[in-house]
Design brief:
Blueprint (H helix, E strand, L loop, with lengths): L1 H8 L25 H13 L4 H20 L2 H13 L4 H10 L3 H8 L3 H23 L2 H10 L2 H9 L1 H17 L2
Helix pairs in contact: 1-4, 1-7, 3-6, 3-7, 3-10, 7-8, 7-9
């Protein structure tokens, strides 16, 4: 489903490319991020504050896409092709690509979230969840390193909202199983 597209657009080293001041470094559209840019991107994702408003808007995007895919199965194939062709990219490139996907204005408009905030929120959710799960699993070395980078409020958010991760996973799983 669309979660895969958002995640692949901006996960780990493919995270958003803005500095702490919020300005985007110069990058060629479609070019992979540089090593320094990747470090900045991961830091920005790790510290991006999760809010109930943005998370609920992300869930709305996911639900909308899921219902659109049921009505028009060609949408998912179109989005997957566009995502596969993109490869690693900066936030600017990911936002531009997602903004140009079929029906994106309708999808993001209905949810009241920008493509930029969607990617940041999804990426921060993933990164914060991974850090939280490592911490909970007792993998102290990996958890300590990753959790040290994560906004402490995001770790609290994940701990207090486990249903969000379950719902995102369920929506994405339903979308993936419907396309197989």
């Amino acid at each position: 489903g669309f979660a895969i597209l958002a995640i692949s657009a901006c996960s780990g080293k493919d995270a958003p490319a803005t500095d702490a001041a919020g300005s985007a470094p110069a990058a060629t559209a479609g070019a992979p991020p540089t090593a320094g840019q990747e470090t900045t991107d991961v830091r920005n994702i790790a510290t991006y504050p999760l809010t109930e408003t943005h998370v609920n808007q992300v869930l709305q995007v996911m639900r909308t896409v899921q219902s659109m895919e049921k009505a028009d199965p060609t949408l998912e194939a179109t989005w997957r092709r566009a995502s596969s062709a993109a490869g690693p990219e900066s936030l600017d490139a990911a936002v531009a690509r997602i903004s140009k996907m079929p029906r994106s204005a309708e999808i993001f408009g209905k949810a009241g979230i920008s493509p930029r905030d969607f990617i940041y929120t999804m990426s921060s959710l993933m990164y914060s969840t991974a850090a939280y799960q490592l911490k909970q699993s007792g993998q102290t070395a990996a958890a300590s390193k990753m959790a040290a980078d994560v906004n402490p409020a995001n770790m609290d958010f994940i701990a207090m909202h486990p249903q969000v991760i379950k719902e995102l996973s369920a929506i994405d799983s339903a979308g993936n199983s419907s396309s197989e």
